[in-house]
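Quick one: structure for this chain?
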Amino acid sequence: MSETAASFIAKSTVKAADLEHRRKINFNIGKYNATVPLGKQQFTDIATARERAKNIKWKAIENLDTLLENFETAFTRRGGKVIWAETAAEALQEIKKICEARNCKTLVKSKSMVTEEIKLNDFLHELGIESVETDLGEYIQQLDGETPYHIVTPAMHKSKEDVAKLFYEKLHTAPNLNPQQLTLIAREKLRTKYTSAEVGVTGANFIIADTGSIALTENEGNGRLSCAFPKTHIAIVGIEKIIPSITDLGLFWPLLATFGTGQKMTVYNSIISGPRQPNETDGPEEMFVILLDNGRTNILANEKARESLYCIRCGACLNACPVYKNIGGHSYETTYSGPIGAVITPHLKEMGEWKHLSYASSLCGNCTEVCAVKINLHELLLENRHEAVTKNTPAWGEKIAWKLWKQASLRRSMMNMANGRIKNWVMKKMFQKTWNQHHQPLQFSEKTFNQLWQEQEKQ
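Got it. Here's what it folds into:
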């Protein structure tokens, strides 16, 4: 067992027994479950909308190289600069060059999972650059020294009392403030950062190929402020976020809002096509878009796993997953948790080290049922398991055990020979540290069903 697998089992075991954690998550996801059906009412036929979105993403991923080049051509025509980064290290070095050339001391950052993926905040801290999270949930997590718990709702595992206590300890506010008061304090702290920052960093929900634009959707306005006030705007985006045309946003924005938060549309929706133009009054003086691979072409090359690149990061599969709701986002120890994280992480990182995530599923299929773009997530989890077995040669003892099991399964006489007493002894001795550690010991009957049936027939 790998160290990451052992750590995952240890953390998930502790978290699954934490009833207070379960209460908070069920409360917050319960609010989500109540609003999503209302958001779906805007669609005449939600199944057709999801199918259309999947087909558009299929077209985009199958023509990824051409569409990315089209984006670069259109974006650079308006004065923007595109940087291609094969790895996280390359992306970080490019950001370092940009920041050093502009003598950056403070950087403001809107919510972006891809910056969490490359660990941008830690990197900037080492350079002595203050990196400030401006999304309220991300700001809370940054104050607490934690990574995001959820793709869409970074601080989902915290109650309003937890946040009030955190602000009291870190910002020396009055204790027991209500959510509105806490939000106003965060706004007061962050507003001065926007105007003093030399560089602003955002992600992008979509890359638009035909217009050379990025699309941002948010509820707080921090994304707009992060790219409008600083003189330099850097957008860091995974290459899979591409869509063919700006007209596709008419489908994808409502889908993302509905499946992400239950809204018909989020509050702020922005299309950014480069730095400030001569006839424009606001916006950054220069804009960079970093197109990040970081393992995504590994998924692209895998015909079966390629479908996972359709994901629009709505987080619906996390909210639906019974495993996620019990063990929480941090137990996965990855940027992307839940079913989609379990599917893509072994390909983005290393299958042998992260294959255990694909086994952390009940295979109930609920993730597939709720996916905004109809990704067959539970089938992809099975594909990961299959790939892990074929690529990573199992231990000698495991091979022998499965061969014996196969032979016994093919011969009823051998199955009958292994009576309940023998099976119970095997389960007690051989599975003491695996099954028996987390489950009630299995108790087999003295006779198999086949033996009981034969006796019944004789009588």
